[in-house]
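Technical note accompanying the year-one report. For the benefit of new consortium partners, we illustrate the data format agreed upon in the data management plan: each record pairs a sequence with a C-alpha cell string. No post-processing was applied to the example shown here.
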Amino acid sequence: MNEFKKVLFIINKFSGGKYFSGLEQKIIDASSASDTEATIAFTEARGHATELARNAQASGAYSAVIAVGGDGTVNEVANGMIGGSTPMGIVPKGSGNGLARHLGIPLDLHRAVDAIFACQPIDMDTFRLNGKLSLNVSGIGFDGHVANLFGKEKHRGLPGYTRITVSQFLHFKEFMATIKAGDQAQERKTFIIAIANSSQYGNNARIAPAASVCDGILHVCFLKKVPPYRLDFIYSFFAGTIGKTSYCEIIEARDITIAL
C-alpha cells in the first residue's frame, strides 16, 4: 500500500466526450478510506493541466498528482511534473487511453481510482521530440496528420478517429526521411514514422508491441502505405503482430535524429 497523505486530482471533464457525475464522490470516498486528503481541480483550457501540475509540484504540498483524462491530459500533467520528485498517477478517461492501457491501469473509473491507493510508483521513461515532451507515441507523417485533425474535433472516440483516417488515407503520400540512430544514417520512403516509448496508440492498436517504458529505448516504426484491400494489416495492429508484416520496419535506439 502507498502512504499518500495529500493527493491532487486534475480532471479534464471533457476527455472522452462525456463526464461521469459520480467521479468526484468516488475520489472523495476512496481517499477517505485510505486516510488521504484529496483536492480536486478541473482544467479550464488547453495547457491549464500543466499549470496546475507545475504549481502543485512547486508547492511541495502533495504526495502525488493524478491526471484524470485522456493521453492529452496525461501529457499536459506530465509537462508540469517533469524534473520533480512528486509521483504522478493516471485515471484514464479519454477516447484511446494508450499509455494507461500499456501500463495495465483499469479503464473502469472506479477501479482506476481504487488502484491509485493500492499501487507503488515506478520510474518511467519519457522522451522529447523537437523539444516537446512525449510519454507514449509520437508520429510523423500520416498518423501525425490524422492526430492533428482529430484534436480539432468536438466529438471524440474511435468512430471519429476512424472516419478521419479513412477520409484522408487516399490523399496522403509517402515521403522520404533520413534517420540517424547512433553513428548510422539511413534513408527510408515511408508513410508513417511512429516513435514509441510504449506499445500502443490507444484502443489496443499496438504500433510497437515489444516497447517498454522502463528500458531507456525507443522503438522507431516505419510504415509503408498499405493497399486499402489489405484488411489483414489493420488486424495486425490489434493482434500485436504488426512488426512481422512486410509493410513495417522497427528499429531500436536511445536517441534518433530525423530529417525530412
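Partners are asked to follow this layout when depositing records. Residues 222 and 249 are 5 Å apart (CA to CA).
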